[in-house]
Amino acid sequence: MVEFEPRLFDEIDPSERPSLGAALVPIAGMIVFLSVGLIAFDLDPQFPLFWGIAFTGLFARYHLGLSWEDLYDGIASSLLMGMRVILIMFTVYALIASWIQAGTIPSLMYFGLELFTPTVFLPVAAILSAVISFAVGSSWTTAGTLGVALIGIGSGLGIPEPMTAGAILSGAYTGDKQSPLSDTTNLAAAVTDTDLYEHINAMRAGTLVAFTIAVLLYAGLGLRAAGTIPADRVASIQAAIESTYVVSPLVFLPVVVTFGLALRGVPALPTLGAGVFAGVGTAMLVQGTGFGAAWSAAQSGTAPETGMELVNGLLESGGLTGGAWIVTIAIAALALGGLLERAGVLAVLSHHLGRLCHSVASLTGVTAVSAVSMNILAAEQYVSIVVPGMTLGNLYNEQGLKSQNLSRAIEASGTTTSALIPWSSGGLFMAGTLGVPTLEYAPYYFFGFLSPLVLLFMGVTGWQIVYADRADSEEPATRSGGAGSVTAGED
């Protein structure tokens, strides 16, 4: 677990603390650079983020008075926090390639095409993803394994990939939020001093409402997709897979190994690493791939020639080295977030948002806005949990609210929206893993919008809002921050 100890507003010396106006300068600069680079010149995000790093660093050095060493430390701390994210990204790309070479993902597609129909595919994909994510406690593991296969099955059934990706993410984040094995669920409980199961129970009703609505919407989309698949398309896809891979129950060994370890509570990184070894071993034993060729596929990716262009495209992968493009964006975004945190920008913004809270409704709304803002600015879902969780705790205590109201709010609006931000670690990972750009799957990631909307409904109506009794209110309902550090792993 990686330590992350953000500087809170009261911990920053007033002489070093930026004003609200000064804090908004690097934010405005980042918006301008991303707009100019991505929209005006159609650049990839790396260099617009690099411009933002340079601008923020110079502003913090010469206007706010931070030393170069302070700035380096800010970048290093953020990168250290995100190191597990980076390692998981590389490992998942190697895993996908090894599972394709082993015939695991092609076989999942082969049998899935027999079991699913276009009408039921999207809602079933969402529910199946939720069940697996709850069981293993990881939305990322679910998307990187089951999700990749579901993308292929959906394409074979004529379902647009963005729709399938949205259903996968809705299910994956639903199960993740309710799983006691999830790192983000544990982090949200820990940073607010909330009992883990009280936190999970507090999320259950809102999560169920949001997910039920999402599943109904996917059912509606499925009805529109029914009947669009040519009669012989499934048979053609299956024939193309059989012509290239051995389709056998033995190829599911990597699935058994990976999910077996996850169910035993083994952390995501060693679990996924074991999945790579299992995939390579299965490729050698079942598909007859040589030792060097099997590891080369895991490293450099796959480009099968099945005789069918659709299948070739679905089973192409970049392998470990193919993840470098996305990882460079993640590194740049983490570095920028580290500079903003060290300069006090995040603390100042969160503090001023907190001053807008005058009721339960406004407090809930400000918490949601703060969590989403941290996702946008720091590009890491852990920051969206930790900073609001440690900054806004006293405000919940002042209004006589139990800490699970805060823990629910930061996860319902922070964890779930990470996958909607193109440069956030969640958005980068899901787009790279599923092969669908963030802005294309975002309109179909219904749970990502519904979860914070249901949260706001709770704040306005008072539904599921839990108050402390008089005895409880004598003790702090949440940690106000500053005492020690919190730890973060990765989903």
UniProtKB/TrEMBL annotation:
<keyword id="KW-0472">Membrane</keyword>
<feature type="transmembrane region" description="Helical">
    <location>
        <begin position="275"/>
        <end position="298"/>
    </location>
</feature>
<protein>
    <submittedName>
        <fullName>Arginine:ornithine antiporter</fullName>
    </submittedName>
</protein>
<dbReference type="InterPro" id="IPR052180">
    <property type="entry name" value="NhaC_Na-H+_Antiporter"/>
</dbReference>
<keyword id="KW-0812">Transmembrane</keyword>
<feature type="transmembrane region" description="Helical">
    <location>
        <begin position="74"/>
        <end position="96"/>
    </location>
</feature>
<keyword id="KW-1133">Transmembrane helix</keyword>
<dbReference type="InterPro" id="IPR004770">
    <property type="entry name" value="Na/H_antiport_NhaC"/>
</dbReference>
<keyword id="KW-1003">Cell membrane</keyword>
<feature type="transmembrane region" description="Helical">
    <location>
        <begin position="140"/>
        <end position="159"/>
    </location>
</feature>
<feature type="domain" description="Na+/H+ antiporter NhaC-like C-terminal">
    <location>
        <begin position="171"/>
        <end position="463"/>
    </location>
</feature>
<feature type="transmembrane region" description="Helical">
    <location>
        <begin position="444"/>
        <end position="466"/>
    </location>
</feature>
<dbReference type="InterPro" id="IPR018461">
    <property type="entry name" value="Na/H_Antiport_NhaC-like_C"/>
</dbReference>
<keyword id="KW-0050">Antiport</keyword>
<keyword id="KW-0813">Transport</keyword>
<dbReference type="GO" id="GO:0005886">
    <property type="term" value="C:plasma membrane"/>
</dbReference>
<dbReference type="GO" id="GO:0015297">
    <property type="term" value="F:antiporter activity"/>
</dbReference>
<feature type="transmembrane region" description="Helical">
    <location>
        <begin position="318"/>
        <end position="340"/>
    </location>
</feature>
<feature type="transmembrane region" description="Helical">
    <location>
        <begin position="245"/>
        <end position="263"/>
    </location>
</feature>
<comment type="similarity">
    <text>Belongs to the NhaC Na(+)/H(+) (TC 2.A.35) antiporter family.</text>
</comment>
<feature type="transmembrane region" description="Helical">
    <location>
        <begin position="48"/>
        <end position="68"/>
    </location>
</feature>
<feature type="transmembrane region" description="Helical">
    <location>
        <begin position="108"/>
        <end position="134"/>
    </location>
</feature>
<dbReference type="Pfam" id="PF03553">
    <property type="entry name" value="Na_H_antiporter"/>
</dbReference>
<feature type="transmembrane region" description="Helical">
    <location>
        <begin position="20"/>
        <end position="41"/>
    </location>
</feature>
<feature type="transmembrane region" description="Helical">
    <location>
        <begin position="205"/>
        <end position="225"/>
    </location>
</feature>
